Amino acid sequence: MENVFVMDHPLIQHKISIIRDKNTGSKEFREAVKEISMLMGYEVTRNLPLEEVEIETPVCKTKSKVIAGRKLGIVPILRAGLGMVDGLLSLVPAAKVGHIGLYRDPDTLEPVEYYCKLPVDVQERELIVVDPMLATGGSAIAAIKFIKDRGASNIKLVCLIAAPEGVKAVQEAHPEVEIYLGSLDEKLNDHAYIVPGLGDAGDRLFGTK
Ligand code: URA
């Protein structure tokens, strides 16, 4: 699949098994989501530009590389996306965090934005949109559109678990957006839950329901 990267590192697979298990409680679930996000972030940030600076070690002066240029923004889709923010921030603490909240209009079934607060310089940033579950793709497609409407053009989508239906929908709507996944699951069920999935990620993160 074009622009889709499934990160099947053993540590990621191991931790995804933990969050799939219905007997995993909220505390362990949250911790594992944070750790998976951090491990995925390692790969998602692989192409960050570097620049050379001069530093002095205890032994001598030398040239060494530091992250340069394009700045990062992390944009969780509320509310489950919040669970992925800290893991990414632990890798790139200087990243700004935007938030986007959507609900589905009960009449039109279209996603409606109810909250959107992004870094002011969003056009200059590489944005990492995060949502643990990519199911139908409706929220991710709408969130990416709202972000593009505000001038952003360099956008990646990072999800822990996806259904093929959602991946296809995002690819069709936003073909240039790279999609990073921890697992590509089998399918959606009749209630738009991912199978086998992990249930409702928001409820499991926050202990609701
Ligand atoms: N959202 C979730 O939290 N879980 C799913 O399986 C699908 C959408």
UniProtKB/TrEMBL annotation:
One of its GO terms (biological process) is uracil salvage. Pathway: Pyrimidine metabolism; UMP biosynthesis via salvage pathway; UMP from uracil: step 1/1. Binds 1 Mg(2+) ion per subunit. The magnesium is bound as Mg-PRPP. Keywords: Allosteric enzyme, Glycosyltransferase, GTP-binding, Magnesium, Nucleotide-binding, Transferase. Its cofactor is Mg(2+). Allosterically activated by GTP. Coiled coil: none annotated. SUPFAM superfamilies: PRTase-like. Gene3D superfamilies: 3.40.50.2020. It is an enzyme of class 2 (transferase). Uracil binds at residues 194, 199-201. Its EC number is 2.4.2.9. This is Uracil phosphoribosyltransferase. It comes from Anaeromicrobium sediminis.
